[in-house]
Design brief:
With about 325 residues, this protein is mostly helical. It is about 70% helix and about 0% strand. Helix 9 crosses helix 11 and helix 11 packs antiparallel against helix 13.
Length: about 325
């Protein structure tokens, strides 16, 4: 990687862009972001110090280039929304959002769950039918769904993941009914195409982000009931060790999005092959600095290592969803 290039993550670039726009315009943009995005960008804004003119120029220039790639107005609204979201998020990640916007109608009740803390979500859904809980897990972002799953009773987790994995969409009428029910609960008291929720990939994404010990117990529970289904889910999961199968260009792009502290923590819990892969794709100076950090960093908690690895996995999956890298390994498509 070029040593003289400003290394900014995508979140940092977004934070700089919003700060450049000014308070009023930034507030209008933030209204359209989800809770996870708001939290990440807010944290990045708070952490940014001494933003240079070059950093601002880099962020704005990349935004302008991205904007120029978008299809101009004049086509159908639905087509425009599909193209913009697919270009911005990648087809897989955008599909659920497109379904909710264009097919599922109002999702105010469900959407509000994304802004709630894990305990509140669990209290709201824990006594519902397992299929309803599975729909909610499918609707939440994978990291939030993983936390909710971990807070639910252990004897239900395997069944819930099986329901998520075998879910073949949800009828808009059922979505609307669930949405209305949640609206009533939160206040205190159709025909058409299925919504693209649930499925094997959704289950794999959630299991990727639960604690490792919890993941093993849930996988065992699924295997006990349906070994074939368990195998299909496992094939789609991407773990930190699978980074060995990512090509060099993909690793280099991933490294530009990762903080040094997270990388040091993550590598404390991995084998020499992964470390060699990382060092191979760094400049000599950056590699020497990383080696020194690894040697001088004392013992760390296993939970901190796993959290850092999951953060990196999340970034890798986002880059893959955007079509910027190919993950390879688990769940990858064979090349002939």
């Amino acid at each position: 990687m070029a040593e003289n290039k400003i290394a900014l993550t995508g979140v940092e670039k977004a934070a700089i862009l919003l700060m450049t726009l000014g308070e009023a315009a930034a507030a209008q943009v933030i209204k359209f972001l989800g809770p996870r995005e708001v939290q990440k960008i807010g944290t990045a804004m708070a952490a940014l110090q001494n933003v240079s003119r070059e950093m601002v120029k880099t962020s704005v220039d990349e935004f302008v280039v991205s904007l120029q790639r978008q299809t101009p107005l004049g086509i159908g609204n639905d087509d425009y929304i599909r193209k913009v979201l697919n270009d911005a998020l990648g087809e897989e990640k955008a599909k659920g959002m497109i379904d909710r916007i264009l097919i599922g109608g109002s999702t105010k009740g469900l959407e509000s769950l994304k802004w709630m803390d894990v305990r509140s979500v669990v209290e709201l859904i824990r006594f519902e039918h397992p299929q309803i809980i599975a729909i909610v897990l499918s609707y939440l972002d994978s990291d939030q769904a993983a936390q909710v799953l971990g807070a639910l009773p252990e004897n239900t987790r395997g069944d819930l993941m099986m329901r998520v994995a075998t879910m073949d969409g949800v009828q808009p009428a059922a979505m609307q009914e669930l949405n209305d029910m949640l609206e009533i609960q939160l206040r205190g008291g159709a025909q058409g195409q299925n919504s693209g929720m649930g499925g094997l990939k959704c289950a794999a994404n959630i299991l990727n982000l639960v604690d490792r010990s919890l993941e093993a117990r849930i996988a065992d529970a699924i295997t006990e009931h349906d070994p074939d289904l368990a195998g299909k889910i496992q094939d789609l999961m991407f773990t930190f060790d699978n980074l060995i199968d990512v090509d060099d260009r993909g690793i280099q792009m991933l490294l530009r999005e990762i903080s040094t502290d997270n990388l040091v923590l993550a590598l404390k819990g991995t084998d020499d092959n992964i470390k060699a892969k990382i060092f191979k794709n760094m400049s000599q100076r950056a590699g020497d600095t990383l080696r020194e950090d690894l040697e001088t960093r004392g013992p760390v908690k296993l939970s901190d290592v796993e959290t850092a690895q999951k953060d990196i996995i999340t970034i890798a999956r986002r880059l893959a969803d955007e079509g910027q890298i190919s993950l390879g390994g688990a769940g990858s498509e064979a090349m002939v």
